[in-house]
Every structure is written in structure tokens, then in C-alpha cells.
Amino acid sequence: xxxxxxxxxxxxxxxxxxxxxxxxxxxxxxxxxxxxxxxxxxxxxxxxxxxxxxxxxxxxxxxxxxxxxxxxxxxxxxxxxxxxxxxxxxxxxxxxxxxxxxxxxxxxxxxxxxxxxxxxxxxxxxxxxxxxxxxxxxxxxxxxxxxxxxxxxxxxxxxxxxxxxxxxxxxxxxxxxxxxxxxxxxxxxxxxxxxxxxxxxxxxxxxxxxxxxxxxxxxxxxxxxxxxxxxxxxxxxxxxxxxxxxxxxxxxxxxxxxxxxxxxxxxxxxxxxxxxxxxxxxxxxxxxxxxxxxxxxxxxxxxxxxxxxxxxxxxxxxxxxxxxxxxxxxx
Length: 331
Fold this sequence. Notes:
Helices cover 76% and strands 0% of the residues. By secondary structure, the chain is mainly α. α14 crosses α15 (296-324). The longest helix has 39 residues, at 187-225. It is globular.
């Protein structure tokens, strides 16, 4: 096990290096960066000379957009990154690590609640559909899940805002708290108001993701139901409930580990489009704005953060296979 983990960690280093190179070159090839947009007006009216602006670009290693110049800028970023320094965000004026830490909390909370709801709904639905294959329940749930999966997140988010916030007036959108909330409001009232603001984005995330997890559970359950040991359990006279929830359910969870491994970056990385649509100040919205305005330090820091979480999630999935299924040996 230890030898396997060491091999995977060494491979992870190579993967992260390749990811960092690709991301940095893609970001540097964007048509604009934050500094150009920030000082555009000053350059236009003559409050800043081109030489002054070039000196500012040189400080951040952005003065040369040739291949060698980008390579030099990447080397500077990499050496600082290995020292634990991800740079200072252009738009926030603070260290990238501090920005990620501050904005990750709300994104993690939303994603965790969404994931728990997805598991509580999708897994029982998938098992129920599999045990009633080709029945009315199976067809109805499958069609509804396929429809939900087809919706883009920005479309469904805006649709819910139109229905439940604008037309019905049930919810408020934008930020985490209502503008009408009194200054004298207590902690419990502020918390309740924040929960009320997060119902719609959580509902959107659950609807969008529940379909794939349900279908995956259904497919795995059908495979387990046709296994020899399930037929043996039924031949011994076990009730259908014990067969499904004692034997089938446990073995259905094994393939789901691979799916759950991908949730690690989702939990901490936020939902970029959903947070932007509902104006939630999480790490997903901050990363989207960083990419949009060319905040290179924050964009690099966020993407490397997601890459590290993805590698860790994949490694944990491989290890959990051996824990859940004794037949799996890691060599």
C-alpha cells in the first residue's frame, strides 16, 4: 500500500506540473489582463506614460508576451508557488491563499448540503428504479432526470429566479442577506436570512446533479441484481428487502466511490456558474471574475487548488476501493 501511494504521489507531481504549464500559458494568451484594464483610462488621458505602465507590467512579469517571455513568467510563478507563495490577487489586493481561504467557506457549505441531498435522493431512487426496471416508476424518474440533466446551470438558475423570486416573490436573490435586514438583527435572524437566500442555488445544484448519480446507481444496481450471489440469497429464502438493502446496496456503493471522488474538488472549489447567477460571494464566483478580468495570480491559484484536490480525490478513491472491497489489491 505504501509503495503504491508513493508511486501515485510521484505521478501526481508530474500531472500537476503539466496542468500548471497549460493553465499559465492559456491565461497569458488571453487578450487582456487586469492591469491593462485598470490603467487603460489613465493611459488614455495621459496621466500615465507607456513607460510607467511597462514598468508596472515588468514588476509582475507581464511585460513580454513572446514564448520566452511567458516561459520566464511561468518560471517566476513556479518558484514562488513551490515556496508557498501564490502571489497577490490583482482585484482583491490580498494574497491569493487568503482570498481562497476566506471565500471557500460559503462554497463548501453550499456544496456539502447539495451533495448530502443528492445522495439521500439519488441513491434510493436509483435502487428503486433498478428493482422496478421498465416499470412506470422507472420510466417516469428516468425521463425527469434526463430532462434535469439537459438544463444548463445558468438557464435553470435564471428560470428559478424568474419563477420563485420575481413572479411569486417567495425568495430574494443576490448576495447572502436581504437589504431590508435591520442592523439590529440578531445572529439567529441573520443566519436564517442567509439560509433563505441559499435555498434556490442549492435546489439548482441538486436538480442538475441528481440525474447522473441516479442513473449511475441504477446501472450498478442492475448489474448486482443479476449476480450469482444475489440469486443464491433469494434461493435461501431471504426477503426481497433484505436482498436489496443488505446485499445489493452494499455492493452498489463500490463503483460509486469513483463518482464520489470527483466531489472533493467540487466541495471546496465551488459552483462557478451557479454562484455567479445568484451573486453568491464564494470561491467559484471569485474564480470566474478572475478569469474574466485577467487576474492571473488568483486564476492560477484557484486552478492549481482544484488540480491538487482532483489528484487527492482520485488517490483516495483508489485506496477506498481496497477498504470497501477486500478483493481489490493495490499493487
